[in-house]
Amino acid sequence: MQKNKILKVCLIITVAWLCVSCDRKTVYHHYETTSIDSWERSDTLFFRNIAIKASTQYKEEIGLRINDNFPFQNLFLVVEQDIRPLHQHRIDTLNCKLIDKYGTIKGRGLSYYQYNFHLTTLQLNAGDTLDVHIRHHMKREILPGIANIGIKLSKQ
User: Fold this and answer.
1) Is the per-residue pLDDT at 119 higher than 60?
2) Per residue in 60-90, pLDDT tens?
3) Dihedral angle of Cα 70, 72, 118, 31, to the nearest 10 degrees
4) pLDDT the model gives residue 4
């Protein structure tokens, strides 16, 4: 009798966890790793062949993770995108405000800080393919303290 109760509780928790963890709007979510000691301006990160299955508007976000070694308040990213077969090319510059003027970190975390920034909203069609290229655009050629850069594409 006791085992049945425990089994039922475990089953309910598992089903609840699965329902909460599934996000049907997210169609792509991936991070690329940089060298935590030095992300060079010429080290472009590539997110290739993102396949679009439904014609709709998509919200595009850039995620990043930094640690305490990042020396600036802001990070400027250049995001280039190619949409095929439409042959559309977009270039966006994103100003990521990471630390306020008082030195308070705006991200979530303890030793690594997670940030998410809205980049744009794209109208994409079923069968389209998206390629995204990201590089930093800072005065300093080599940036320490950046661990990961990611893309999240969600249906509106």
Assistant:
1) yes
2) 999 999 999 999 999 999 999 999 998 999 9
3) -20
4) 65
Q: Per residue, what are the HEC states of 49-89?
A: EEECCCCEEEEEEEEEEEECCCCCCEEEEEEEEEEECCCEE
Distance CA(65)–CA(122), nearest Å, equals 24
CB–CB of 156/59 below 8 Å? Answer: yes
The torsion of the CA quartet 106, 112, 118, 122, rounded to 10 degrees, works out to: 180
pTM more than 0.85? no
Beta bridge partners of 146: 66
With tokens 């190619």, the residue in question is 82
Residue 94, classified by CB atoms within 10 Å of its CB into exposed (0-12), middle (13-18) or buried (19+), is: middle
Instruction: Give the CA angle between residues 148, 89, 31 to the nearest 5°.
Output: 15
Residue type for 23, please?
D
Selection from 129, 122, 126, 152 nearest residue 53 by Cα: 126
- Cβ atoms within 10 A of the Cβ of 53, count? 10
Spatial CA neighbour of 116 closest among 29, 25, 21, 22: 29
